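Structure, all two chains, one model.
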Amino acid sequence: MAREKFQTLTEQMFYVLLTLREECCGTDVMARISNLTQGRVTVGPGTLYNLLDSFQAAGWIMETKTEGRRRSYLITPAGEQALAEEYQRLQILSEDYRGYMGRRGEIES
Amino acid sequence: MKLFDRQKKWEINLYSYYDHAGIVRHLEDMARQGWQLEKAGSVFWTYRRCKPAELRYAVVYFSKASQFDPEPPAEQREFWELCKATGWELVTNRYQMQIFRNPAPDAIPIETDPVVQVENVRAAMKKGSARANWCLLICSLLQLWLQFRSAYTIRDFLTQGFALSAVLIWLMLGIKAVVELIGYYHWCRKARTAAEEEGVLLSPRTRKWWQILQILGFLVTVTLALSLPLLNSSPSPSTLIILAASLAYALLLALIVNGSRQLMKKKGFSAEANMGFNILIAVIGSLVLMGGLVWTGFRIAKAPSLQGHINAETRTSPAYPAGDTEHTYTVYHDPLPLTVEDLVGETVYKDYSCYREIQGSPLLTEYTYKQEVPFVFSISEQDGPELLYEIYEVKLNCLYEPVKQSFFTDTVYNIPGRFKFAVSQSWTPVDAAPWGALDAYRFIREDNTPIGNFLLCYADRFVEIRFDPWYDGAEPTEKQMALVGTVLGNGPLS
């Protein structure tokens, strides 16, 4: 069954929003994600362009300035909220993992 | 299917519009063989000779691009710039499809999120190829419905080579659209699930065989469709003229629609203005050209020689009643296989109009013969008897019964808002032996009076003969019936 748009964020959506907490342009976003994740996550230019376009349409990011063909963006409060909700969801997953593995450890010992 | 030049090569594109993975595989193979893509056309793709190299290609879709854009819009250029920053150079683009090349073996892919990628393909297809296929399917169904609706009986349909040609072509286009749409939606549904649940991009199935079949099917259908009207037993010059006019119609319309679009792009009109004008010019162009076709039809109808009539003459009768305009009519002198004189001997009346018309297809041929008194306001004793007969020659055994049944089905003539009436077909069986036929029927009026219309069924043909007006209520003699059977039922027709 197809999920609702942006109901959960993919890894790349998450990092794009995260890096846009500071104003930057598309190429900077790609470089920052690569640095932040030490090359574990890469976002291709096509994916990035579409994500920026979709986030802007959803009101999660806004365009701040245009220099030639370089456009810079910044996250909006709505985007911050989406990012925070995703973080909470990941935290719940993480806590569930810890809780389950802890109980299993106790049983095994 | 490759056409060679020393430095250039043209190839027929064998990939569906959304088959990005198949196209990439093919382009990388071509680069290894020393051919780099230069241009992607609608049918032919152009390659230029290069050093064999391991190149990476990427096919992505930019849904905001349009075939009506005078120049690539700023957003599209921005997208190209972003790709360029990671080493991807634009090779060529075709509407929404953008083809990039990168010499670096470890280049970051342009698309890295399967969910976004699938949505991107969907958006591009929705605006481009899928929409075009839906339009094609609707047009095809509409045309097929019109073709079947315009034929009152199966005989009308099977004897019209042009109608059969149109059905063949539209059927082929409809099947093409259905197969493309099923293939695309099937991939799309599976790819969305795979992207969302497994995080992988499902490549569309490359069906080269289907594309080859499509091209072959297109060539065979067009050849068959064009030759159908000519495969008639004796095609008249009018058949060739209508065929040429129909081809000119299709070519001119394509030229007008494409030409106006290209011209407006060159002149820098906006995509919206260009698209609006393009639709308008397509509608007006098709109406004007259709008018031209109808005009051609009328001109042919006024020229008996073009319809294959030998020595036809045009006469003018005095105004009747006095003061009215004069009447112009045509008197034909075509050869007939059976004449009034053959049946009743020499008649006093000599000035007959003998009309013959042959139309048909490789499935069924209709021969119409009329021996009539040319133009009279009232039948007098000095006028000769008339003879009218139609013969339907069935070329395929399986069509014999449906054609036979069509004679017994009431025909409803309906032009919405104008008129609607049914012609009942009341045939009663009569003795077939004197006619040398398998079955014989006679037409019965609503008041149960038999008239001089007979339907005679022979092994490969049906003869509908009318001895009106002189035989109304009377029986043809045994000798006359036998002659009809010998000449029309079993004799050669021309």
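The mean pLDDT of chain B is 86.
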